[in-house]
Amino acid sequence: MEEVFTQRHPAFSKRKIEEDHDISNLVPVSIIKMEEAYEVMVFAPRRVKENFSVNVSGEELIITYDPAEEAYWYDWDYWQSNHGGFERTFLLDHPLDSDTIHSNYEGGMLRLVLSVLS
Question: Any idea where the domains of the chain sit in the sequence?
Answer without folding.
Answer: 2-70+80-116
